[in-house]
Automatic annotation (TrEMBL):
Biased composition (Polar residues): 1-15
Broad EC category: isomerase
SUPFAM superfamilies, sorted: Pseudouridine synthase
Protein name: Pseudouridine synthase
Taxonomic lineage from the root: Bacteria, Pseudomonadati, Pseudomonadota, Gammaproteobacteria, Alteromonadales
Domain Pseudouridine synthase RsuA/RluA-like as annotated: residue spans: 35-180
Chain intervals for the UniProt region annotation (Disordered): 1-32
Keywords: Isomerase
Record EC number: 5.4.99.-
Family, per entry: Belongs to the pseudouridine synthase RsuA family.
Annotated InterPro entries: PsdUridine_s_RsuA/RluB/E/F_cat, PsdUridine_synth_cat_dom_sf, PsdUridine_synth_RsuA/RluA, PsdUridine_synth_RsuA/RluB/E/F, PsdUridine_synth_RsuA/RluB_CS, RsuA_PseudoU_synthase, TruA/RsuA/RluB/E/F_N
Length: 214
């Protein structure tokens, strides 16, 4: 009798163990999305650290937990977007997502309509043909800050400004495109990424967008 009772008690304990669910850790609250819009100066790296004692984002941005969505070359200026949202970061940087970006570009010389049309149609670079671009002549933006140091202009050669919008993000693509048609880029300012722009941002300043605002 004692043996049977022990066996029954053991079965009950085993059954309770099977029914007992493991303790579940409470979900961590999801952090609200933040977007940082930064007007990057010339000669600043699009990263927070550098072993070469060069200027980085850490010299300008005091906002923890955000990372650059894409890059802007050290010798380029203008809009850089940072975020704590990994999905948004991927969306803005993956080639297949085709996020439109607009650049204001000062070139050496005065491109004719045929040269501009070549950019609109797409040119073949050493890494393949570019997709069609939106290209227009523009006046120098009235709000533009002086570059430090200034660009090197040749007095005998005029310069002109273009607005170039592309949906690709190859390395130094806009510079290579203008060089391909014979008009080297002297100065490059990124004005827009998707629906975000430089409007209201002085050079070297940033603005944080929270939640629905972003």
């Amino acid at each position: 009798m004692h043996q049977r009772n022990s066996k029954t008690a053991g079965q009950a304990r085993s059954s309770n163990a099977r029914r007992r669910k493991p303790l579940r850790r409470p979900d961590r609250p999801r952090e609200a999305r933040r977007i940082v819009l930064f007007n990057k100066p010339f000669d600043v790296l699009s990263q927070f650290t550098d072993g070469g004692n060069r200027a980085t984002l850490a010299d300008y941005i005091q906002e923890p937990g955000v990372y650059a969505a894409g890059r802007l070359d050290r010798d380029s200026e203008g809009l850089l977007l940072l975020t704590n949202d990994g999905a948004l970061q991927a969306k803005l940087t993956q080639p297949g997502k085709k996020t439109s970006k607009t650049y204001y570009v000062q070139v050496e010389g005065e491109p004719d309509e045929a040269a501009l049309q070549a950019l609109r149609d797409g040119v073949t670079l050493n890494d393949g043909p570019t997709l069609p671009a939106k290209v227009e002549r523009i006046d120098e933006p009235h709000w533009l800050w002086p570059r430090n140091p200034p660009i090197r202009e040749r007095k005998a050669i005029p310069t002109s400004w273009l607005s170039i919008s592309i949906i690709e993000g190859r390395n130094r693509q806009v510079r290579r495109m203008t060089a391909h048609i014979g008009y080297p880029t002297l100065r490059l300012i990124r004005y827009r990424i998707g629906s975000w722009t430089l409007d209201g941002l002085a050079n070297g300043e940033y603005r944080v967008l929270h939640g629905n605002e972003s």
